[in-house]
Amino acid sequence: MTSLESSAVQDDAGAPETALRFPTGFRWGAATAAYQVEGAAAEDGRGPSIWDTFAHTPGKVLGGDTGDVAVDHYHRFPEDVALMRDLGLTSYRFSISWPRVQPAGAGTANGPGLDFYRRLCDALLEAGIEPWPTLYHWDLPQPLEDAGGWPERDTAYRFADYAELVHEAIGDRVKHWTTVNEPWCAAFLGYASGDHAPGRLDPSGSLLAAHHLMLGHGLAVQAMRGRHPDNRFGAAVNLYAVSPATGDPADVDAARRIDGMQNRLFLDPLLLGRYPEDVLADTARHGFEPDAADLAVINQPLDQLGINYYTRHTVAGTPGEAAQTASGPFAVHSPWVGSEHVRFVEAGRPVTGMGWEIDEGGLHEVLTRVAREYPAVPLYITENGAGYDETPDEDGTVHDAERIAYIDAHLRACHDAIADGVPLAGYFTWSLLDNFEWAWGYSKRFGLIRVDYATQLRTPKDSARWYADVIGRNGLPGQG
After folding, report:
1. What gap in Å lies between CA 261 and CA 143, rounded to an integer?
2. Percent of the chain as helix, strand, coil, to the nearest 5
3. Is 383 an annotated catalytic residue?
């Protein structure tokens, strides 16, 4: 392990002045997900998930990569927690592996699986870091997929049972809970376009999956709330600013459609207790008719809302042209159910190594919109970061100036949003560690800390030292 040389820089004669300070108590974190970092895929009673099955299916993941070992966080978490402490993180967002806790997706808990998360939480607390678990980051137990997966209503009830088991085990150690992460991806990349696990091509089923993910969220909150009065509950949604390519009515309508499917399809049920009427009309041919009683369950009072933001969508709706998606390296079928004709176009901005345009103004737009159009709830950026494939110097140092610039710009957008009255209370960068990046395998690196996948050596990048400085000063240095 290579430790950070300095976890904080004080304002003094030798350091740049802090130009933008964040509110006292602002939470600074980093995030990971179980399948992307844990490894130990068949240890201590863990069962297979849909991502195990998907990754082991030829042609599904770039390079044939799998999460069998990933970055071995399961065995190396003490080292990783020490790195978090050196960074000065106040919070660590991780996900619970459902098949590690409940291999069959039902029934009693797997004791060794829960013990791992107890040990992880204890190590974090000892280091002065708040654990922020996410209960579902896409690793559905394979037996539940075999029974129909998220398009089946019963999966939502199985999720609530699982949430209760985890809450009973670590609810005394955890205050902040995220139920589901990015239900758009789980539903539409998983069940409509097939880019993600389980790789199904079922547009009608994907709408049911989206609904049942939200229903599972509501049922889980109901199951957990009240056991520990200081616990706080929410979900994490991936939101985008959406712009029409031109003022042409077809492009304007395309922007409405994609905003509806990406943003409002989840924000409206969670925060308003209803689905957008225009989205229901766009998807009507798939027979999606959600039950009003379900919406009452989904619309649980939220203590927090996580927002994951990476880029802006610019779209065109020119009739007669084939859909162009940017959802994955092997995308053929559109995840945009009911709006398959919409094209995603480049607007000429610089891009990250993922090919995603960099637009920090879109983050400010998203934050102010949520604060303006929905009931007040504390907001957290639960994911934001940039993927590149950096090459280390001969001494192993990674000079990732592009990542620093990306995070800096987006933090400045966060600061502007707070100044505009947005109740933003924390920021989690994606990701703490380089890891298995879903359908891109190990080809893209998002981490503040470089991982040599052959040796598992951890090396903080320049961005890690920069972020430690930001945390230490609770703000950003002046731009010179």
Report:
1. 29
2. 40, 15, 45
3. yes
Residue 350 pLDDT > 80, yes or no?
yes
Q: Are strands 343-344 and 312-316 parallel, antiparallel or unpaired?
A: antiparallel
Helix (H, G, I), strand (E, B) or coil at 161: helix
- Asked if residue 144 lies in contact with residue 155, where contact means CB atoms within 8 angstroms, the answer is yes
What token pair was written down for 77? 């978490």
pLDDT, tens only, 232-244: 999 999 999 999 9
Determine the straight-line distance between the first and last CA of the chain, rounded to whole angstroms.
Answer: 33
Q: Which residues contact 438 (CB under 8 A, 6 or more apart)?
A: 36, 61, 196, 328
Backbone angles phi, psi at 464, to 5 degrees: -65, -45
Count Cβ atoms below 10 Å from residue 320 Cβ, excluding itself: 5
**pTM for this prediction:** 0.95
The radius of gyration of the chain's CA atoms, rounded to the nearest angstrom, is: 21
| Binding-site positions for substrate | 36, 137, 181, 310, 430, 437-438
Q: Known binding site: residues?
A: 36, 137, 181, 310, 430, 437-438
- Encoded tokens for 30: 């980093």
Which residue type does 234 have? Answer: G
In the block, residue with structure tokens 């707070």: 418
For residue 4, is pLDDT > 70? Answer: no
Enclosing H/E stretch for 241: strand 241-244
Domain boundaries, the chain: 18-237+273-309+357-364+376-474
Alpha-carbon distances of 294 from 219, 299, 479, rounded to whole Å: 10, 9, 49
Percent of the chain, pLDDT > 70? 94
Residues near 77 by beta carbon (within 8 Å), at least 6 away in sequence? 119, 120, 123
The active-site residue out of 145, 182, 360, 365 is 182
The answer to whether 414 and 381 are in contact (CB under 8 A) is yes
The CATH number of the domain covering residues in 18-237+273-309+357-364+376-474: 3.20.20.80
